[in-house]
Hints:
It contains eleven helices and 13 strands. The protein is of the alpha/beta class and 402 residues long. Strand 10, helix 8 and strand 11 form a beta-alpha-beta unit. Helix 1 packs antiparallel against helix 2, helix 3 crosses helix 10 and helix 4 crosses helix 5. The longest helix is centred in the N-terminal third of the chain and has 51 residues.
Amino acid sequence: MPYSLKNPPDLYNRPKPPKLSRWMTALAIIAAVSFLLMHFFGGDIEDKPFWWLALGAPAALWLTAGVARLIICLLQNIMANGYDERRERWILSETRKSRRALQVLNVSFITGHPQEDPREVVQALISHQNIIRSQPDWRGENGHRLTRFNTGSDLSADAVIRHVFSHLITDLPVNQFTEDSRLVVAFDLSSSLSEECISDIWKEIWQETNIHCAVEYSICNGLTMIDHWLNHRITQNEMLLVVALQVMPEETDYSAEVAVALLLGNRLKQNILQPLALLHRPELSLPGQLGTGMNMAAYNVPLKNNIISQLWLAGLSEGQHEEMIINQHSHPAGAVENEAIILLDRLTGHAGAAGTWLAIAAAVFAAENTRTPQITITGERTTEIMWSTVITPVDPVQEMDT
């Protein structure tokens, strides 16, 4: 069975120390039996050799067995101490890994809200403003409730995507990028259009802006990318730019068109841009394990005074939402008032690949504004996995020390 902080190895099963009372009883029994045998076979109790054999031999045998038992017990305890020390080192190492976090350097997103400023959109979400309405979908079909980008219905698919991507790139702090800057752009896309077609549009716009930095492109699927990055690339100089987009989805009823750009940096290497918040390691939960996953997400920070001001939910299936309700009062979600639980799918529609990143982006702005931690619980599109993620405001002094 693979070990984790949720399922650590047990302590070594140490042997029980010898009990003196049992050994003294054994000595008395051995001496008595030896005396009776010697007397039965005609030994003279008046002779000194009788007593040497009757009592000395059992005592010597008892002492030899006792010393052997103590040596075995000592060796077993040495093995146990070594195992427990390795276990403690492993737990400390895994705890350090679990408490890795990324700096959130920039956030930009576009939804179907009438507000253009993301901070105003976040306030609308916190106020539970529902923007889902009956309107034609991208195919022109009526009878669906959904949200779409406010780009006009006369634009082509390429034009809509170019407009959205241009907006996201404009919001990036590209003027602070240098030729030495290295960027990994990870696409998380859900659309009736191909991923290659959408990513090519981004690359064209990126080249047109003449941004001077080395770029590596990748495809990601939700928060697995963040977990992998924290495990394998936390000491590298690259920044990670997650570009998430749902546009013109296959299933349009109660869907949402959403675009998110999330720029992240490694705390150990990045010191040029001022972070907005910290994105802590997301914690994976299989069905039936959400309570444990939320608790581990809080442990990954760790949270002080168990304070969480908002809970952001996105991309949850009906079964996952029911499990969330069951665990609503578990740590740390139990600290969140009912009014502070924001169900993005019910306010904006199902955002597909962009749902997770919209929840995180909104939580970043909320953490920056309220100076309190936020938690997101999101589902994966193709599995029953849920992710619990804590976002905390930045302490400038602590970041300088880090």
